[in-house]
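Contributing new records

If you add data, match the layout below exactly. Sequence lines come first and carry their own label; structure lines follow with theirs. Keep one chain per record. Anything else will be rejected by the validation script.
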Amino acid sequence: MRKPFVAGNWKMNKTVEEASKLITELMPMLEPINSVERVLCPPYSSLMVISAMLEGTPLALGAQNMHWEASGAFTGELSPAMVKEFCQYVILGHSERRAYFSETDEIVNKKVKAAFEIGLMPIVCIGETLEENESGKTADVVGRQVREGFKGVALPDPEKLIVAYEPIWAIGTGKAASGEDANAIVGLYIRTVLSEVFGADAAQAIRILYGGSVKAANAAEFFNQPEIDGALVGGASLKADDFTGIVKAAA
């Protein structure tokens, strides 16, 4: 059985003061829900403060990105060691990184390898655009992203890898995929290709999330699907009641 997993990606929202307030609201609501792995991914500026707040709790912390190099002249970037100092997880290959910052499958691959090398658990995002979806290219696109993103990756433990299927046309648009459609893509395309890359047993142990306009009201539609193991939540993770509702649905 794959343990349900829900992560909140706060994106470029919340000052340190606002983030601290949200964590204070979230902790007593989330801590009792032990049947779900709960991860919070605030902006870089809040990682140190929130890491201290979460110490000794069952809640985990994740960064939204990192560089693959250990150090160097990369202004504005954080190295894997800098992330590891505060976090257990790191989001890699988010569609916004791919679209706005020109991240390629090759770059994602380098970051995945760097994360595993230092002991971080990557949450690797994949997904197709609306145009690719409507033209029947979903299988080709997500298959390529899996094959190239994990090419040559030595998987230390399948439970330490999280894959998030985020159809780009559903992110922040209010238009979510249906639970059945998302489940079919995860099972037929993503988990099948993961089997090719890592073997069937590992592929069955890797948790695959859905992301894209997930709310407390529609979360159960996805979590009731056998191939979907949780969610990577965007906007709804910025409100304590909304995010807690999604975690409860996963439980």
